[in-house]
Amino acid sequence: MLSGTPTTATRGLAVAGLLWLAPLASGVDADERDDARAHVEFGISVARAELWQEAIYRWKRASEIDPSYAAAWNNLGIAYERGGLFDEALEAYETALDLEPDNLMIQQNYDLFREIYDRLDEDAR
């Protein structure tokens, strides 16, 4: 089980299984598509090594190259969540969900995050 914030402790090793590559939108050219995918793949590798700041950098870069790349936004949400950046995580998850509302993996990540985020928000009040 991963240590860290209550969020990541609750979700444990499931984080590694929820990082994924998805088809890229056709609005970018092939070189950009390859570049974005390379950033996402590298981000997954460094996240598995617990190098979350590097993962954030890679997934932010992928989302800049292709703003419609839902997997990059989803993975960015996971990394922000892992780092305790909950407002940023919420925004990233919502962007991913807006891009792919029928994606069950994104929906699951968002739902799990919202459950914990809402509890933390209630505790802060």
Any overview of this molecule?
With 125 residues, the chain is mostly helical. It has one domain: Serine Threonine Protein Phosphatase 5, Tetratricopeptide repeat, CATH 1.25.40. The chain contains seven helices and no strands. It has helices spanning 6-11, 14-18, 30-48, 52-65, 70-82, 86-99, 104-124. Helix 3 (30-48) packs antiparallel against helix 4 (52-65). The longest helix has 21 residues, at 104-124. It starts with 5 loop residues before the first helix and ends with a helix. Mean pLDDT is 83; it is low at 1-17.
Which helices and strands, and how do they pair?
Elements: H1 6-11, H2 14-18, H3 30-48, H4 52-65, H5 70-82, H6 86-99, H7 104-124
Helix pairs in contact: 3-4, 3-5, 4-5, 5-6, 6-7
Strand content: under 5%
Count of helical regions: 7
CATH-derived architecture: Alpha Horseshoe
Contiguous runs where pLDDT drops below 50 for at least 5 residues: 1-17
For the structure shown, list the relevant keywords.
125 residues, mainly alpha, Serine Threonine Protein Phosphatase 5, Tetratricopeptide repeat
Offer a concise description of the structure.
The protein is mainly α and 125 residues long.
